[in-house]
Amino acid sequence: MKPFTTLTAIVAPFEQPNIDTNQLCPTRFNKVPRGPKYAQVLFHDLRFNADGSEKEFILNAAPYNKAGIIVADRNFGCGSSRESAVYSLYEFGIRCVIAPSFGDIFANNCGKNGLLPVVLPAAAAAEIRRQLRDQVGATIAVDLAAQTVTDVAGTRHHFEIHPVRKKCLLEGLDDVDRTRQYQSAIVAFEAAYKAERGWLYHDMR
Amino acid sequence: MPGQAMPRTMFEKIWDRHVVATEEGESLLYIDRALIHEGSSHAFDTIREQKRALFRPQQVFAFNDHYVPTTGRSKGVNGIAVPEIRNMVLQLEANAKEHRITHFGIDHPEQGILHIVPPEQGITQPGLVMVGADSHTSTHGAFGTLAFGVGASEIMHVMVTQTLWQRKPKTQRIVIDGALGFGVTAKDLILAIIARIGVGGGVGYVLEYAGSTVRAMSMEARMTVCNMTIEAGGRAGMMAPDYTTFAYMADRPYAPKGAALDAALAFWKTLPSDAGANFDKTVELDASTIAPMVTWGTNPEQALPIDGVVPDPRHAKDAVQRAEIISAIDYMALAPGMALSDIKIDRVFIGSCTNARIEDLRAAAAVAKLGKAQVPAWVVPGSRTIQHQAEKEGLDKIFTAAGFEWREPGCSLCTALNGDQLQPGERCASTSNRNFKGRQGTGGRTHLMSPAMAAAAALKGRFTDVRELMVKA
Ligand code: SF4
After folding, report:
1. What confidence tens digit (pLDDT) does each residue in B217-231 have?
2. CATH number for the segment(s) B10-166
3. Fold held by B297-472
4. Which of B427, B440, B465 is nearest to B181 (CA)?
5. Which of A94, B44, B351, B464 could form a disulfide with B460 if both were Cys (CB 3.0 to 4.6 A apart)?
6. What's the rounded Cα separation, in Å, for the pair B472 and B95?
7. Dihedral, CA atoms, B99, B104, B106, B108, nearest 10 degrees?
8. What 3 state SS string does chain A have?
């Protein structure tokens, strides 16, 4: 996983709440193997006509075709658990999504793929979107170590992130390596657990 | 009282017993069972790239469901014409074999959807922590188990360590009391709950459904409610195990038997939330006020009783909601103020992990019996077991006599991965769980409702109050 430290990038504002993972990655693309192809998949059915020509959609035209950040409204990434929704954003070049709330599974998936989900209060997210309407193509700065978003007007917004999630993103760490350090604890746990609930194991076919 | 333990919720009891280690407020949870399907291919790709091995393959269960065809199954995997779809089925088979995972494959006599087969087989039991590579894993919470969906990275982590790092969610109790009215089902109840708390109402919470309405429900109905917890944004949905649960468990292949059953029962009875346990939030609902529900929009909270009308954006509570209503009405090709019962449909889909269990098919058949389908109507059982049970009861005959199509088990039109899909602009009355734009095929329009309501819609060619249809009969 590529580390996430700081980012200054063009921001695409999305006013609609409840943008679901079906929109981010239409279901039929789930089977695409991970890789650059996912850049085209992002919001595919909103971006492209059936013949492959482009529709009018925010991410299709400059400056937003170079966006690195999305600022959205509540419940971004709700719905299906498909991690391909994150692959699509990532391959398109999005490294950070800012919203008042996220679909639970989606936010977890982001953190495992070097994409930072930032929760800001609804008013702050709305204010940033308003600034972007006034200054199309403006950039904002995200600093994970400092846990701040600096908006177009220069105002700094602090955000919360779990210390372990922060460390993994900053260092590009994989959870499996972290868990390996607990191998003996897992084995000890299992031994006690099996003694207590043998029926969960004896009938494995 | 000194010496007395703090009252705990069912969620806390299960969570606490599964914590292997804690690091800065994140807990490493032991996972009893992991469920995967064809879409888990990304996880296996990573396992291969990183040369990792499965830690406890006997606790992983694989299901061919999303990509299997629902006709022509006698030819098995060779009956799948589209190479990419066939590949997805074959890949899971190969991965399951290579990693020695129990696999309910396309030709397995108990094949079915990953949220339908584990309860049938007794793989799902009270008191477990289960994860699935699919958001509707919340279904299994109906047994008093903590079950939630995860993405490809997390299911990979589970497969190679049998654990998962999690932060403790908050708890929300949804108390539902009173009797559901005539013709009103679990599906109507969960749609009413989502309409009430919103598609973000459960974000950050595990939901425990409680109250007399839940206690009176069958396991099938309970699973329908827990299934759609994710549509309210909830991490997981749970219901206390009781005698209905225990009776359901009896004689299931993976369920404990004999002396082991006595030990299991003694444990299961300790699971329900203690009196006085604290929930971070409580919502109360009166079941008797709920009517058959239909969604009109493009997310599951956009649902109304069948006697309702399509909302008018001018009456929205704020600009955001106005924009949402306008966008949904536009996509769904409806007009403000239109009566739901005036909306004509092109197709009907009775199926999915929400509503393809035997009770659902019985309810739909009881309605189908009353007439003839006016539009193409599909019935897709959730598993082979259900298919055979339904055929034993003659439900397939009822459906086909009424002009419905009786198909083979799988996810089918719920998610349109296997080739079953809506054409652009087609409007479908569906018993599935998501009405997102394009969910059932690009440009398709989905309206969610109960199996009885979907069958009624088939007979009329438009949405109709199933209660009136049944009373007239
Ligand atoms: S039936 Fe639908 S919701 Fe259920 S597992 Fe299959 S695709 Fe997912």
Report:
1. 999 999 999 999 999
2. 3.30.499.10
3. Aconitase; domain 3 (3.30.499)
4. B465
5. B464
6. 54
7. 120
8. CCCCCEEEEEEEECCCCCCEHHHHCCHHHCCCCCCCCHHHHCCHHHHECCCCCECCCHHHCCCHHHCCEEECCCCECECCCCCHHHHHHHHHCCCEEEECCECHHHHHHHHCCCCEEEECCHHHHHHHHHHHHHCCCCEEEEECCCCEEECCCCCEEECCCCHHHHHHHHHCCCHHHHHHCCHHHHHHHHHHHHHHCCHHHHCCC
Within 13 Å, how many C-alpha atoms sit on residue B340's CB side?
Answer: 25
Confirm or reject contact between A179 and chain B (CB < 8 A): yes
- Cα(B335) to centroid(ligand 1), Å: 30
Return the ∠ at Cα B48 (arms to B45 and B53), rounded to 5°: 120
* pLDDT exceeds cutoff 80 at A202: no
- Pick the closest to residue B27 from A70, A186, A109, A132 (CA basis): A186
Ranges for all domains in chain B classified under CATH 3.40.1060.10? 170-289
Residue B3's pLDDT band (boundaries 50, 70, 90)?
A: low
**CB contact (8 A) between residue B84 and residue A31:** yes
Q: B52 in contact with A at a CB cutoff of 8 Å? A: yes
DSSP string, B160-180: HHSEEEEEPPEEEEEEEESPP
Contacts of A133 in chain B (CB under 8 A): none
pTM of the model: 0.94
Best CA proximity match to B457, nearest among B446, B466, B448? B466
Q: Where are the CATH 3.30.499.10 domain residues in chain B?
A: 10-166, 297-472
- pLDDT tens digits, one per residue of A138-189: 999 999 999 999 999 999 999 999 998 999 999 998 889 889 999 999 999 9
Record: contact A186-B163, CB cut-off 8 A: yes
Cβ of B28 under 8 Å from any chain A Cβ? yes
A55 touches A81 (CB < 8 A): no
Structure letter (DSSP) for residue B190: H
Average model confidence (pLDDT) for chain A? 94
Rounded-to-integer distance, Cα A66 and Cα A64, Å: 5
Residue A205 confidence (pLDDT) above 50:
no
| Cα B414 to middle of ligand 1, angstroms | 6
DSSP SS3 for B449: coil
**CB under 8 Å to A33, separation ≥6 — which residues?**
B41, B42, B45
**Best B165, B251, B270 residue to mutate vs chain A (most A CBs within 10 Å):** B165
Query: Which residue of A104, A110, A133, A176 to mutate against B (max B Cβ within 10 Å)?
Result: A104
> Average pLDDT for residues B317-322, to the nearest whole number?
90
ipTM for the whole complex? 0.91
> Any idea what the Cα angle at residue B186 is, between residues B184 and B190, rounded to 5°?
110
State whether residue B103 is helix, strand or coil.
Answer: strand
Taking alpha carbons only, the member of A57, A50, A53 closest to residue A19 is A57
Residues 52-91 of A with CB under 8 A from B: 73-75, 78-84, 86
Considering the domain B170-289, what is its CATH architecture? 3-Layer(aba) Sandwich (3.40)
Nearest residue, CB atoms, A199 vs list B150, B163, B260: B260
- Radius of gyration of chain A, Cα coordinates, nearest whole angstrom: 20
Q: Name all residues whose Cβ lies below 6 A of ligand 1.
A: B 65-66, 113-115, 134, 136, 352-353, 411, 414-415, 432-433
A164 touches chain B (CB under 8 A): yes
